[in-house]
Write a structure and sequence with these properties.
Helices cover about 50% and strands about 15% of the residues. It has ten helices and eight strands. It binds uridine-5'-diphosphate and magnesium ion. Uridine-5'-diphosphate binds next to strand 1 and helix 3.
């Protein structure tokens, strides 16, 4: 294995993580120092904290940590909460500008195993541009999150977005990956899909998920649904095709039904008192139409967001 000294940046999205951020930074600084001593990364490696518009003392903690560790702890703060994906994108694009050979993203609660970072770096030195962390299990997730997450990944795979099950945002990206990312202006970028799709050499590292040490999960039903819908519609047009197929099948079904009704009316002369049929059909087609409109609406929403071409986020503060 080569003993290159790469400059590593670790990005940490933080939203109201006052309770845990000091601990997390201490742990990660130790990891950086350890890797430095082993000669795997350069002395200039650093942490980059993206405060996603926290309302608690997260930014104060970041400033304090910056005072303590100097340029080893850098950070930026969004003017409001934009969500974890945008915090990650901001981190990736910022460290590309600040300078680094590779970057690893990890959650502020250190649920992902920070000791895998060394394996990530080894894989990077072995020539991988992307190293993706795969959870060994979902023991720490609630039953609801387990079911929805697994269904989401299965559905994504059926729809042609081949991202591995139990994928996470714990990932290493090389400078080359960052350069490619910087050329994608789309607003609703879904990073797990994106890094999988661009086709750079990728390796996978399995890790154990730990329970969150302090503080609460920042995701709720709505933010998870929004992430899932975004991921689906940003990467796959299969739902649009399914509508077309459903439309054709429905038309064929209606045609058969029409022929049958005409046959009964004119050949058998027994006009059925089709109350039930009408109600069922009305309900069925009403439902189907709304469902289809919903899917179209999803895509329209994507187009709407992209066409506006707004900045992804606005920054409030920065420390280097
Ligand atoms: N996070 C963020 N913005 C948000 C929600 C979450 O930057 O709007 C960060 C959060 O601080 C953490 C990471 O994203 O570092 C993952 O969040 P969390 O641990 O709450 O999610 P879970 O592990 O429950 O999926
Ligand atoms: Mg977590």
């Amino acid at each position: 294995m080569s003993e290159k000294k790469s400059e590593l940046a670790i990005i940490i999205p933080c939203y109201n993580e006052e309770a845990v951020i000091r601990y997390t930074v201490e742990v990660l600084i130790n990891i950086l120092n350890g890797l430095c001593e082993k000669g795997k990364i350069s002395e200039t490696s650093y942490l980059y904290l993206v405060d996603d518009g926290s309302k608690d003392g997260t930014w104060d903690a970041i400033t304090e940590l910056h005072e303590k560790y100097g340029s080893k702890v850098k950070g930026t703060k969004f003017i409001r909460n934009y969500g974890n994906q945008k915090a990650l994108i901001a981190g990736l694009l910022d460290v590309r500008k600040i300078g680094c050979d590779c970057v690893i993203s990890i959650d502020a609660d250190l649920q992902q195993d920070e000791n895998s970072i060394e394996t990530f770096i080894d894989e990077f030195h072995n020539g991988s541009d992307i190293v993706s962390g795969i959870r060994n299990n979902r023991k720490t997730d609630t039953l609801f999150k387990k079911i929805t997450a697994i269904s989401f990944y299965k559905l994504m795979n059926i729809l042609g977005v081949k991202i591995p099950l139990n994928h996470s945002d714990f990932r290493l990206v090389s400078r080359r990956g960052l350069d490619i990312l910087s050329e994608y202006p789309e607003e609703g970028l879904f990073l797990r899909g994106f890094f999988h799709e661009i086709g750079l050499k990728t390796s996978y590292v399995r890790f154990d998920v730990k329970p969150r040490k302090l503080g609460k999960s920042k995701f709720n039903f709505f933010s998870l649904t929004s992430l899932a819908l975004n991921g689906l519609t940003a990467f796959s047009i299969v739902p649009l095709r399914v509508i077309a197929v459903l439309g054709v099948l429905t038309m064929m079904g209606s045609l058969c039904l029409g022929i049958e009704v005409l046959y009964e009316k004119y050949c058998l002369n027994n006009i059925p008192n089709g109350y039930a049929t009408i109600v069922i059909l009305l309900a069925f087609f009403g439902g189907l139409q709304i469902f289809c409109l919903g899917i179209i609406g999803e895509y329209l929403g994507q187009i709407f967001n992209e066409v506006k071409n707004r900045p992804r986020y606005i920054k409030d503060k920065e420390i280097f």
